[in-house]
Amino acid sequence: MSIPFTFSSALLSAALLATALPAAAESFVTFQVPGATSFSVAQINNSGVVAGSYTSSGGQSRGFVRSASGEITGFDVNGLSTTAMSISDDGTVAGYYTDGGGLKAFTRSPAGVITSLVTPGSFSVAYAINNLGSTSGFYRNEQNDDFANRGFVATANGGFTSISMPAGMSGSVASALNDGGDSAGNFEVLYLNTLLKYVGFVQTASGVLTSFEAGTVSDPAGIPQTEVAGLNNAGTAAGVFRTVVCPFNCATKSSQGYVRSAGGQITLFKVGATRSLMNVAGINNAGQIVGDYTASRGASGFVRAADGAVTTFKVPKMLYTSPSSINDQGVVAGTCLKSGSSTYLGFLRLP
Q1: How much is the pLDDT for 8?
Q2: Angle at the Cα of 218 (from 217 to 220), degrees rounded to 5?
Q3: CA-to-CA distance for 123 and 105, rounded, in angstroms?
Q4: Which residues 6+ apart lie within 8 Å of 242 measured at CB?
Q5: Rg (alpha carbons) of the chain, rounded to whole number
Q6: How far is residue 108's CA from residue 312's CA, in Å, rounded to a whole number?
Q7: N or C: which end of the chain has fewer CB within 10 A?
Q8: Residue whose C-alpha is closest to residue 133's, from 173, 77, 93
Q9: How many C-beta atoms surround the C-beta of residue 52 within 10 A?
Q10: Mean pLDDT of 319-338
Q11: What is the pLDDT averaged over residues 251-266?
Q12: Cα dist. 338→157, 294, 299 in Å?
């Protein structure tokens, strides 16, 4: 079911850190679904179309698509709670909906046709979609296996491939997918017998799998976490490397962004003060990386160019600026929070 409506408003080496400079020339557009009680932007495509999710006044989670001209169309799968995770250049959306307490992966065509993905498990989520209509994510069968997540890539013509599971890995999620059919994501690994750490992986369309860790930790109580956020068509992956300290509250002690080339070279980088926490949201085909970092007055966004130069920004009059995507034209999309309120808005940053 779709309800259309319109609403628009305006290794850097360990010894070196990227120099962050405020943007010199930029403009912002903010937008929201009228009456929404929560709001989250997932991704912007190369046509300027945005996908995301919101909670209606009745408490239901719904997906939305915002056209380049500002028209927003809300949708759900058969009236069920629905979350949009990604969008291809032709406007096809991938995500998941809740059915009988479990999650089910779906795609939605530009014409609004919903297709549920067929996976081996009874539980599935589609995280990414590429421009050939392939999707990636994870599934699990909660009835007759060990409840572990299994990463997958599903092609538009019905092909289905599970991510290879090396010895010692206890689960996987394929969170990124490029137009060549290469996927990337995370393995879950049992650490210190009771805790989980995350290891990154890239798997080519032909099935060659490489796992990697972006860094190491010196704290004996620290757990290394390599999280993959994106994979571009050159095979460059980006994400964040965290040190999580347990067993007390398992808090993040430190975080750095990283870039991993197709050849396996890893470059770590930092935005903000030494103790600022970072999130990396994605990478485009120009090698620009987008994310956010903590600052003295809430979260701010950043764009890191392929040459390592970092530009920081904040949506005017907003306490919290959290980018979620950057397209090949350098337009950033994300979610922001008004200062002194609980109102979340979507935003576009035009370079």
Answers
A1: 32
A2: 100
A3: 8
A4: 224, 225, 227, 252, 253, 254, 255
A5: 19
A6: 34
A7: N
A8: 93
A9: 30
A10: 96
A11: 93
A12: 44, 16, 12
Interatomic CA distance for residues 185 and 104, integer angstroms: 19
What does the block give as tokens for 273? 């003060």
28: β partners: 349
- State residue 192's pLDDT score: 62
Taking the C-alpha atoms of residue 305 and residue 309, their distance in angstroms, rounded to an integer, is: 5
What CA–CA distance (Å, rounded) separates 128 from 174? 8
Mapping DSSP to helix (H, G, I), strand (E, B) and coil, where does residue 259 land? strand
Tokens 């990124």 correspond to what residue?
A: 176
| Model pTM score | 0.90
Q: How far apart are CA 53 and CA 51, in angstroms?
A: 7
pLDDT value, residue 194: 59
Q: What is the pLDDT of residue 167?
A: 87
Tokens found for residue 229: 């956020």
Question: Which residues, other chains included, contact 336 with Cβ-Cβ below 8 Å and sequence gap of 6+?
Answer: 30, 315, 318, 320, 321, 322, 344, 345, 346, 347
- Which residues, in sequence order, are CB contacts of 194 under 8 Å at separation 6+? none
Distance CA 155, CA 267 (A): 32
Peptide bond into 351 cis (omega under 30): no
Q: HEC states along 204-221?
A: CCCCCEEEECCCCCCCCC
pLDDT tens digits, 100-116: 868 999 999 999 999 99
Which spans in the chain are helix H?
none
The C-alpha atoms of residue 336 and residue 246 are separated, in whole angstroms, by 31
pLDDT for 120 equals 86
> Strands 222-231, 93-99: parallel, antiparallel or unpaired by DSSP?
unpaired
pLDDT band at 273 (very low <50, low <70, confident <90, very high): confident
Residues 6+ apart with CB under 8 A from 113: none
Indicate the pairing of strand 310-313 with strand 20-22. Answer: parallel
Give the DSSP H/E element, type plus range, for residue 278.
Answer: strand 278-283
Query: Residue 122 has what pLDDT?
Result: 83
Count of positions (residues) in the chain: 351
Closest CA to 225 of 203, 255, 269: 255
DSSP 8-class letter at 69? T
